[in-house]
Amino acid sequence: MRSVIWLPMIGVVALTLGSAGCGDDGSEVIVPNAEELAAALVTSEDFEGEWTISEPPEGSEVPATGVVTDEQRQLLPRFELCEQASPESRAAAEGLRWMAFRQLELAVEDPIAPPDDRTGHVVFIHEFLFSGEPDEIEATFGLLRGGMQACLGDIPAGEEGPGTAEAMELPDVGDDHYGVLVMIEEAGGRGEWRMHNALVRQDAVLMLLGVVDVRVGEGVEPYYSIDDVGGFVEIAVEQF
Fold this sequence. Notes:
By secondary structure, the protein is an alpha+beta fold.
C-alpha cells in the first residue's frame, strides 16, 4: 500500500444507488450508496487531538462531502499488491472502485518543516469506503487479505526503502478484518514512513483505513502504537 496525499481533482458526482442484499445470517442488508458512505466517514471530531479535514482545493468544483467522483477515482492511489500475490488478488486490488474518501491531518508539536527543519512528524489518516452485495464484499475482502498476506516480509529498495511489511493485530471489529504495518525508510535513511493499514468488511461495506506517521530525525519515536491505531479502527467502524 502506498500513502495518500490529497490531489486537486475535478469531476461531477457519480452515485451508486442503494439496493438490498443478504447478510451472513441470511437477513436483508441494505447496500448504502455513495452519499450514505460519505456520511459515515470519520471527521475531525471523532478522534482525540487537533485534526483537520484535507479539503479539495478551492475552485476545483469537487464536493467536500467525501463522495468520490469518477475523475477523483482515477487519481486516488491504488491498492497495490506485490508480485508474490496471486493474479486473482492483484486483479481484485486493481478493480477496486472506492466510493467515499477522506483524509485527516494531525497538528503535532514537532512537525517536519522542510527545507530547514527535517526533524519531527507528519501524521495523517486516510479512509476509503466501498459498498456492494455482501457476497461480493466477502469475496473481495478474502482476495485482498490473501494478497496482503503474500506480501509480508522484506521490501526491496526502490525510489525509497528498503522496508518491511508485517501483520498488525486489530481489535475484533466488523465481520472480518486484517491489518498490516508497512515500514519504509526514506532515501538516505534519515526518516521512516510507518503505514498502518486496516482492511475491514461489515455487511455490505468494505473499509480501508490507513494511519500514517512520517517520522524524520535521530531519536524521533513513532507517534502512535498499534493499540492506538486499533482504537482509530474501532471508532471508524462504529460510524457505519
